């Protein structure tokens, strides 16, 4: 069984939490109180981690927010990865996939150079583009399946000749590609009407569920429909509504208190479901 999956499920069982904290760190949105820090992005991320570590199962680094800043952003990403507690799953939200030899380099970058526990990938180019990721049987590979954005209707929800939806074909393929339990899918919380059916169709996959919070998905519905028969194997990602709380803060401590309060609220809501 995938070591990454075991780590996540042990944390879920211990905390009765499904919280995945999205580190979508935008320098333009960081509270003013961090502006005097030598490295505002890294200090902000450290604060988020300190404020949420008692409730979080996982942290998801959206690589675009770091890559957009060039080498300095990548250094911040690498330093942030080192700050994530060892008992928490570290996810690279990179949405990579390409022809096999290129994907092997992507997999090596995120699983060996940076030692993430999991990665998000895109299925469009098929099995040979994803096999290099699935070959790491100790990791978790989250394949985009039915995403939370409105544009998912353009392709993911199109009906194929056999009658099934494209996202259902992806779901079935990922179930077959999964190696030692390392297969997962990204399913948006805004698709709650479909989430229970997706779980019943793929009982053995690990779910990463974005779309709660700023995008309007229901936390409770996502938790209830997303978990497996053992009430595990699901993570609910919350980014903007958690790491950018409303208000102004006189100190970093005040900011952390606001983030911790929201993390505990999410944790308690999920605990009631689990």
Automatic annotation (TrEMBL):
Reactions accelerated catalytically: orotidine 5'-phosphate + H(+) = UMP + CO2
Assigned EC number: 4.1.1.23
GO-annotated biological processes: 'de novo' pyrimidine nucleobase biosynthetic process; 'de novo' UMP biosynthetic process
This protein's UniProt keywords: Decarboxylase, Lyase, Pyrimidine biosynthesis
Alphabetized CDD domains for the sequence: OMP_decarboxylase_like
Positions of the Orotidine 5'-phosphate decarboxylase domain: 18-255
Enzyme class: lyase
Record bears the keyword Ligase: no
Domain of life: Bacteria
Gene Ontology MF annotations: orotidine-5'-phosphate decarboxylase activity
Pathway of action: Pyrimidine metabolism; UMP biosynthesis via de novo pathway; UMP from orotate: step 2/2
Keyword Phosphoprotein: no
Family: Belongs to the OMP decarboxylase family. Type 2 subfamily.
NCBIfam families in the record: pyrF_sub2
Name listed for the protein in its UniProt record: Orotidine-5'-phosphate decarboxylase
Annotated source species: Chlorobium phaeovibrioides (strain DSM 265 / 1930) (Prosthecochloris vibrioformis (strain DSM 265))
């Amino acid at each position: 069984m995938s070591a990454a999956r075991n780590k996540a499920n042990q944390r879920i069982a211990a905390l009765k939490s499904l919280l995945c904290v999205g580190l979508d760190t935008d320098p333009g949105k960081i509270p003013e109180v961090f502006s005097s820090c030598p490295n505002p992005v890294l200090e902000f991320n450290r604060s988020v981690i300190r404020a949420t570590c008692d409730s979080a199962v996982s942290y998801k680094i959206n690589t675009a927010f770091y890559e957009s800043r060039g080498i300095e952003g990548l250094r911040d990403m690498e330093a942030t990865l080192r700050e994530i507690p060892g008992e928490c799953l570290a996810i690279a939200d990179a949405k990579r996939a390409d022809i096999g030899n290129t994907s092997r380099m992507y997999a090596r970058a995120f699983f060996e150079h940076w030692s993430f526990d999991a990665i998000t990938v895109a299925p469009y180019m098929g099995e040979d583009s994803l096999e290099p990721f699935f070959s790491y049987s100790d990791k978790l590979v989250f394949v985009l399946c039915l995403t939370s954005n409105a544009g998912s209707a353009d392709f993911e929800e199109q009906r194929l000749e056999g009658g099934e939806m494209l996202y259902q074909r992806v779901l079935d393929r990922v179930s077959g590609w999964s190696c030692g339990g390392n297969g997962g899918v990204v399913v948006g919380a805004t698709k709650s009407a479909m989430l229970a059916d997706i779980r019943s169709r793929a009982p053995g996959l690990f779910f990463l569920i974005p779309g709660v919070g700023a995008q309007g998905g229901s936390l409770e519905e996502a938790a209830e429909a997303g978990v497996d028969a053992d009430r595990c194997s699901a993570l609910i990602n919350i980014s903007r509504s958690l790491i950018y709380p409303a208000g102004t803060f006189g100190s970093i401590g005040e900011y952390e208190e606001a983030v911790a309060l929201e993390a505990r609220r999410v944790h308690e809501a999920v605990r009631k479901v689990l």
